[in-house]
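Its record is quoted verbatim for completeness.
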Amino acid sequence: MELDSERKSHLWLVAPNALQCMPRIRYVGLDVVRPGMKYRWDAVRHRRFNRSVIFQYTLSGQGRLTYRSGCHPLPRGTAFFCDSNTPDLVYDHPSDSTEPWEFLFVNLDGAERVGAEFLERFGPVYALGRSTFVETLRDHLRSPRQTQFLSPSRMLGLVDALLVELVTAGSAAGGLEHSGRLVRRACEMIEARTGEAISVLALARELGVSREHLARLFARELKTSPTEQIRRVKIRRACLLLEDASLPVSEVARRVGFDNPDQFARVFRRWVGVSPRAFRTHGRMPMP
């Protein structure tokens, strides 16, 4: 983990007598990473430090967040929000960047469940644009005092303001995390990889959501499961390939991602009602 930056200001926010079950902002800071500096945060290596939920908002320049196999640019007005211990989470300043990356960051205690739910529902990145929450914290940072005491109600108000902005941005149509677009993207990936042995877990990871969340989205949007959608696409493709009598059934199986022809035959029969050879012999049947 390399964190080479210029810390412009920082602030501890303390809410005496706050309920322990209530999410609390513990630490706020402003950082600048200039070209040539090495800045890379790796959640796996960071686990030895205190766990918290991180909100980070780009004020100028651009950073980058990698979550699972997805890479997300973090330009001005964009933020991410997730647990510091989230597996496969890395954010950094690209080494070839020619401009500084300035960002405000917030560490929250007691927000792990909120962070996990938001990550599953909306993904890690939010296009906030102008943020009233960020401007409020920048006002706090202008104070010469590095520790400020807030009432529990004031602390709760700040946390609520942040969560409202995140929910509003996360629920807006147009982001990859929006359920309709995410399911469409998943279907496109399934169609493009008919010849591969696709797993739902790998598909979900590439989309940046959990397997369970992807299953819920498919059930809501398509009234089916990701597994059934994968098989439906494979069998539809197999039906087309079986029209070519020169292709052995084993080759058809291989081209739709089955290493075992017997397994392919069982799945095909369950979907179509006859074996691949019978389908080829008796002509086309309605495809699933």
